[in-house]
Specification:
The chain is of the alpha+beta class. The protein folds into 3 domains: 211 residues, no CATH class; 130 residues, Sandwich (Immunoglobulin-like); 126 residues, TolA/TonB C-terminal domain. The protein is 35% helix and 21% strand. The protein is built from 13 helices and 27 strands. Strands 3-16-15-12-13-10 form a 6-stranded mixed β-sheet, with no helix packed on it. Helix 1 packs antiparallel against helix 2, helix 2 packs across helix 7 and helix 4 packs antiparallel against helix 7. About 16% of the residues have low confidence.
């Protein structure tokens, strides 16, 4: 409803801004907006999602894991998240009733529309083609003037208040009883107006608007847009008649006369344009008598721009996420580095996943409260997975009460799941860490009767290298200087290749090395410094995407990057598959 409302607000505002432009242009804008509203469900499924952070934090729960990492790989700090309360009592009953109410309203609206269409078909089946040569001849002339390939079917009903135009492949104009006695001037005006509806495709636009109104019967803006669409179509057809030499006062007089003859039509609903609808007559007469209005026909380019403009509005609105659904929260931050050698990584804890160790802060014994003593019904639970989505077992999870610094520790089970029960309602800091991955840190609020859900996605850590370069003689240029010096052989076996568990990382091993050369002019001047280079080790072990820190000395940075480009590593592997990994190189000259 919100997205449809936004589209219609923009369309109605555009129509108001175009009030000095032709009615046909305003009708095109409104018709395009209603068509966009009709396809909004399909657009929502096709357009990528994006979020507009305008709602309170407690309702802004991301439905997908959000990875947060600052530029230098340091921890970005805990992120705020809030558990969403479930509606209770009468509120839950009311929410459960809403779909039924909507379905009932939409069903009734569709039935009424179907009845109207059936009545049109029934009336057309009982009507007879008019054989008056004045009508048939005038219809042929007006159809040729408007560029129609063929004149529509002209039918006459036995009803005294029937003047409608409808149909797609074979349009029909339904005349009331006694139309054979109308003057030639009135016949020309009526056919000019009704055939303009056919050339413009107004019945199809109005029928689509009726279907949208059935689906959004509860939205007043949809009703306003449908009424405005019908009114602008009548204005556009009136302009068509006036452009072909009919004086506005004469046309207004004939319209008033027709309205008095067809006044019974106001008591019936038919899903078709009506030339003399009494409820709109006063405004139409006032508009047609205003000689300053623009009645020019719109060009195809203007109509195309109207459609493209509404599409440009609809596409971002379709992907807009204003009210996220309650879903597991996943926030990951960078707070650790990956060891460049596999032997440096300590073994993961193998403690039971349900073992909870409580350690109050030693610095605040008077204010510490044992988490196990909290007999409230709040709890924390979640899963931990690697970037490939595989669950990671035996991952330490630490839950801290920031008010007391009391902690609870557990580990994930074989399915990557963990749970910390029997917590008091409040805010808790959660840290999930595993060697070879960045530490995941978040802050979660849990309420009584709720289980705070965490969907943790561990991100690969960052390789760290440090080099110290001293002044000395420049090495001689050799044929092999274009590549690094081999320092190790590529490993043959990958211990993670056949692992059935997620989170198995094989760190890169440096295979080829190159040392930076101290810039000569800096060495002669005694200039020293340090540069930090960020880079990426690709799946093939090559180093790419080198980027020095902004405050780096250009000469030192160039010397460092020239050497780093020659480095070669064995591929970093996650669960046996080569992956990219970030690297930070600190070079001290």
């Amino acid at each position: 409803m919100i997205k449809v409302t936004l589209v219609l607000i923009i369309a109605l505002a555009a129509a108001e801004l175009l009030r000095r432009r032709p009615a046909a242009l305003r009708h095109r804008v409104l018709a395009a907006a209603i068509a966009c509203c009709a396809v909004m469900p399909a657009a929502e499924a096709l357009v990528p999602d994006w979020e507009l952070p305008i709602l309170p934090a407690r309702a802004a729960l991301p439905s997908q894991p959000v990875v947060l990492q600052d530029d230098d790989g340091a921890g970005a700090g805990p992120q705020q998240a809030t558990a969403l309360e479930r509606p209770r009592g009468s509120a839950a009953w009311f929410l459960a009733l809403l779909p039924l109410v909507w379905g009932a309203g939409a069903g009734v609206s569709l039935v009424l529309l179907a009845v109207g269409l059936a009545r049109l078909g029934w009336i057309a089946s009982r009507a007879r083609p008019i054989d008056d040569v004045r009508w048939t001849g005038a219809a042929a002339r007006v159809a040729g003037r408007l560029g129609l390939t063929a004149a529509p079917v002209i039918l006459q009903s036995d009803q005294p208040a029937m003047l409608f135009t409808w149909g797609l492949r074979r349009p029909k104009v339904l005349l009331p009883r006694g139309a054979e006695g109308w003057s030639d001037e009135r016949i020309g005006m009526v056919l000019g107006h009704e055939l303009a509806h056919i050339r413009r495709g107004d019945w199809a636009a109005q029928l689509l608007a009726d279907y949208v109104r059935c689906a959004h019967w509860f939205n007043p803006l949809v009703w306003i847009a449908c009424r405005r669409l019908r009114l602008e179509s009548e204005h556009a057809c009136d302009d068509e008649v006036l452009r072909h030499g009919v004086p506005a006062p004469d046309y207004a007089s004939e319209l008033l006369t027709l309205a008095s003859l067809l006044k019974a039509a106001r008591r019936s609903f038919y899903p078709a344009p009506a030339m003399a609808r009494p409820s709109e007559l006063e405004r139409r007469v006032r508009v047609m008598l205003n000689a300053r209005l623009d009645r020019a026909p719109i060009r195809r380019s203007s109509a195309l721009l109207a459609w493209l403009g509404m599409l440009a509005v609809t596409v971002p609105i379709a992907g807009l996420s204003i009210t996220p659904e309650p879903a597991p929260v996943a926030v990951s931050t960078a707070a650790s580095t990956m060891a460049s050698q596999p032997d440096d990584a300590p073994a993961a804890s193998a403690s039971r996943p349900d073992a909870i160790v409580l350690r109050p802060s030693a610095g605040r014994p008077a204010a510490s409260r044992d988490l196990a003593a909290k007999q409230q019904s709040a709890a924390l639970a979640g899963t931990v997975a690697d970037p490939r989505g595989r669950p990671v077992p035996n991952v330490p999870v630490k839950v801290t009460d920031p008010a007391t610094s009391a902690t609870a520790e557990t580990t994930t089970d074989q399915h990557g799941q963990f749970a910390v029960p029997n917590l008091a309602p409040g805010r808790y800091d959660v840290r999930i860490s595993k060697p070879g991955f960045k530490t995941l840190a978040l802050s979660l609020v849990v309420r009584a009767g709720e289980t705070g859900r965490v969907q943790g996605v561990l991100q690969l850590g960052r390789v760290a290298e440090s080099i110290t370069v001293t002044p000395g003689p420049r090495p001689p240029v050799t044929p092999g200087a274009a590549r690094g010096r081999d320092v190790a052989a590529a490993p043959v076996d990958d211990p993670c290749a056949h692992s059935t568990e997620g989170g198995c990382v094989t760190p890169p091993l440096k295979l080829a090395d190159a040392r930076p050369t101290y810039p000569v002019h800096h060495a002669q001047s005694g200039v020293a410094g340090e540069v930090v280079i960020d880079a990426v080790i690709g799946p093939d072990g090559s180093v790419a995407q080198l980027q020095p820190k902004p405050d780096s000395d250009p000469d030192f940075a160039a010397a460092a990057m020239h050497a780093i480009k020659l480095w070669k590593f064995s591929p970093t592997r996650l669960n046996g598959e080569p992956v990219e990994v970030e690297m930070t190189v600190r070079v001290k000259f």
